[in-house]
Amino acid sequence: MSQRRLATLEVRSASKIYESGGSPVTALAEGSLTLSPGVVSGIVGPSGSGKTTLLMIAGLLEAPTTGEVLFDGKVISRPGAKLNELRTFRRTHLGFVFQKANLIPFLTAAENVAIAMQVNDVGRQQAQLRAARLLDALGMGHRGSNYPSQLSGGEQQRVSIARALANDPTVILADEPTAALDGTRAEMVMKVFRHLADSRNVAICVVTHDTRWMTYFDSTLELEDGRARS
Ligand SMILES: Nc1ncnc2c1ncn2[C@@H]1O[C@H](COP(=O)(O)OP(=O)(O)O)[C@@H](O)[C@H]1O
Ligand SMILES: [Mg+2]
After folding, report:
1. How many CB atoms lie within 10 A of CB 160?
2. Would you put residue 184 in left (φ > 0), alpha (ψ -120 to 50) or beta?
3. Which fold has domain 9-228?
4. What is the pLDDT of residues 24-53, one digit of tens each?
5. Position in ligand 1 atom list of the atom nearest CA 176
6. Tens of pLDDT along 147-160?
7. Nearest listed ligand to the Cα of residue 28
8. How far apart are CA 223 and CA 213, in angstroms?
9. Which residue, of 27, 99, 152, 217, has the greatest Cβ tally within 10 A?
10. What is the rounded CA–CA span in Å between residue 69 and residue 166?
11. Domain map (residue ranges) of the chain
12. Cα angle, residue 100 at apex, residues 97 and 102 outer, rounded to 5°
């Protein structure tokens, strides 16, 4: 089922300007980012520095005001890009992890992972099998039949990582994935990302305001007021 390509996702000189109550707010100014297979890239900076904006542009969830996004060397997003039309691309090549796991409360852990494949037309049985395998790999094999409310925050986050991996993505984009976790659980999640890059060549991008995690990054982009610090 794997259609994974090893490819680089590149944001080139992207800016994002919001009109907020009549006056423009520059959330991001000329931000550039290269996410390569097997590399863990970090985006760090204080709250409001433009980290999420850059990640959303890289993840094709926001179009930049200026600049472009390339996948495998081809432009895939630019100002005015029709993001709806990129839904299939996102589902196939990108995996997202957010601060909160956002699991579907009335589905079990295994079903939460399987459904991400089923919306991509993977058969139910195959999806269930792969969900079990992914949960196993994340040390959650024994919790597959638990509902989210029966899992700790760290366990829920590991299920959400399994869900992000469901369709064997080229790139994983994680926005403050450890912010809601205690130190031990947070470290576990960072180790999972490191392992995915090292063992499976996934390109990983982690946004964090916590500079403690910089030791896990191969490269780090520091943002301040929407700009890269140099
Ligand atoms: N939809 C929006 N409309 C107006 N301003 C926004 C919007 N999204 C983000 N911003 C502003 O852009 C700046 C960067 O935001 P964000 O990328 O969320 O920062 P971070 O993730 O580093 O906390 C902030 O000043 C924020 O208020
Ligand atoms: Mg943010």
Report:
1. 26
2. alpha
3. Rossmann fold (3.40.50)
4. 999 999 999 999 999 999 999 999 999 999
5. 21
6. 999 999 999 999 99
7. 1
8. 15
9. 27
10. 24
11. 9-228
12. 80
Residue nearest to atom 27 of ligand 1 (CA): 48
- Residues contacting 28, CB < 8 A, separation 6+: 14, 15, 16, 50, 53, 54, 57, 64, 223, 226
| 143 Cβ inside 6 Å of ligand 1 | no
CB of 194 within 8 A of CB of 31?
A: no
* Residues 102-112, mean pLDDT to the nearest whole number: 97
Separation of alpha carbons 167 and 215, rounded Å:
28
Q: Which residue has the tokens 């079903």?
A: 111
Mean pLDDT of the 118-135 span: 94
Q: Which atom of ligand 1 is nearest to the CA of 226?
A: 14
Query: Rounded distance, CA 86 to CA 54, Å?
Result: 17
- Report which ligand 1 atom has the smallest distance to the Cα of 26: 12
- Distance between CA atoms of residues 127 and 167, nearest Å: 10
In the chain, % of residues over pLDDT 70: 99
Q: Atom 20, ligand 1: which residue's CA is nearest?
A: 48
Total count of residues recorded for the chain: 230
Q: Residues with Cβ within 5 Å of ion ligand 2?
A: 52
